[in-house]
Amino acid sequence: AHIASLAGGTGGFSKNIPCLILVVGDLSYYVHERDRHLVYIDSSLASAQLMLAFQTLGLSTCAINWPDVDEREKALQAAVGLKTHERVIMFIAVGYADRDGQIPYSQKKGADLLLQAL
Question: Which domains does the chain carry?
Answer without folding.
Answer: 2-100 (3.40.109.10)
